[in-house]
Amino acid sequence: MRMFVLAMLLTAPALAQTAPASPAAACGPENVSFKVSQDESQRALAPPDPGKARVYFIHDAGTSWSVGYPTVKVAVDGTWVGANHSSSYFSVSVDPGEHHVCATLQSSLVAQRVELAHFTAAAETVYYYRTRLVVSRSVELLELDAIDNDQGKYLVATFPLVVSTAKK
To answer: What is the pLDDT along the chain (168 residues), one digit of tens a residue?
Structure first.
């Protein structure tokens, strides 16, 4: 009987633990899609808001061809924050602390891909993430990578800002 009680006391904490949230919880609702327009006049870095961090999401299409090119939508902590189309960028302001990023394709022509990342934001710091779609005869791959500040600044100076609005 003592062994049974001891076993119950040792296993109870393990049974009480909850399973971690699904990694896809970083993504927003599946039914959200964006209309994206490019603003060629904006190619400047926005500083972080006071007490916040700024995160740039850059899509590098690797080509100037944009007809039929899929839109890449991005979520932070389970909320869609914007989308890129072709080579473009947008930025968001986030609170300091841990954040989870989700990037996925908004397309019915290309197989659905989801990329996930996380980072810990510090106040008044700038972060850069780049997405790329790699397509060959047999592979379609969406990549999401944190990139160096120098590379991020270069791409922001090269690509147009996008304004994305959720479609109703």
So the answer is: 444 333 443 444 443 333 335 656 789 888 888 999 888 776 678 889 999 999 999 999 886 666 667 889 999 999 999 999 989 999 999 999 999 999 998 876 666 788 999 999 999 999 999 999 887 776 678 899 999 999 999 999 999 999 999 886
Residue 53 belongs to a domain: yes
Residue 39 within any structural domain of the chain: yes
- Counting the structural domains of the chain, the total is 1
Q: Give me the domain span that covers residue 106.
A: 22-166
Task: Find tokens 């147009």 and name the residue.
Answer: 160
Residue 89 lies in a domain: yes
**pTM, to two decimals:** 0.81
Place of tokens 């060959």: 136
